[in-house]
Design goal:
Largest sheet: 6 strands, antiparallel
Structural class: alpha+beta
Strand order of the largest sheet: 3-4-5-8-7-6
Helix content: 25-40%
Shape: globular
Order of helices and strands: HHHEEHHEHEEHEHEE
Distance between the termini: 19 Å
Number of strands: 8
Length: 238
């Protein structure tokens, strides 16, 4: 197997090593993959770094993680049908560009009935709410309007989201199990249009994403991108 690229971040090198092995059939569907301890020793990185790599592979549908047993290669039909869950900071960095985050809102609120139902909470229950504008080379690329279940990420509001993204933090702090998406063309709200520097009539790509642990809903996020500046890409490898 090819050696991992040295220029990559530590977690990305671990992740690429495992992806290469899966692509080459080293671990067929259902096979037990290297343990976290083995990967820590092999790459000389922390357990948190290995855990992030495995979480991202799980989010992409490439592995199944079973507590107490380890990580297993996912069935091919699952791999081919999953949409990748990406961190906008990583997307921008991979293009060699500069990411900046402007935090517009970071607070605790009472959840109205419809929102509470989406998060599996009782109406009026406490939720964490953030609104962040992500910029690429100084130009607004995404408005991230996110609600978080406090039971899943109690330290969420204590984070500095000008320095780390909510997606990155939640990858590290929670046990992601599965995710649901809706993707459609839509119009921004008046506030979103102002934050993005576009007209309210400009079409946007709107992604609504809900992620869950095995115990409950972690977060519900609305991600709004100017249609003229963002393309959603994917790939398929049989």
């Amino acid at each position: 197997m090819n050696a991992p690229t040295r220029g990559q971040a530590p977690y990305a090198r671990v992740k690429q090593f495992l992806k290469d092995g899966l692509a080459q059939g080293q671990w067929p569907s259902g096979a037990l993959m290297p343990s976290e301890s083995e990967l820590v020793a092999q790459f000389g990185v922390s357990r948190m770094t290995v855990n992030r790599a495995l979480k991202e592979l799980q989010a992409e549908g490439l592995v199944n993680r079973v507590q107490g047993l380890g990580s297993f290669a996912a069935p091919l039909h699952k791999v081919s049908s999953m949409l990748r869950l990406r961190d906008v900071h990583d997307e921008i960095a991979e293009r060699g560009h500069v990411h900046q985050a402007l935090v517009q809102l970071q607070t605790s609120e009472s959840a109205p009935g419809a929102l509470a139902a989406q998060l599996g909470l009782s109406p009026g229950a406490e939720v964490f709410h953030t609104c962040i504008v992500h910029l690429e080379n100084g130009r607004p690329l995404q408005v991230e309007d996110r609600y978080v279940n406090p039971a899943e990420a109690p330290a969420y509001l204590a984070q500095d989201f000008s320095q780390t993204t909510p997606t990155h933090y939640l990858f590290e702090a929670t046990a992601l199990w599965r995710a649901q998406y809706t993707i459609e063309s839509g119009l921004p709200t008046a506030q979103e249009a102002r934050w993005l520097g576009i007209a309210e009539s400009d079409p946007c790509l709107v992604v609504v994403r809900r992620t869950m642990s095995r115990h409950g809903v972690i977060t519900l996020a609305r991600l709004v991108h100017p249609g003229s500046r963002y393309v959603l890409e994917g790939h398929f490898e049989p």
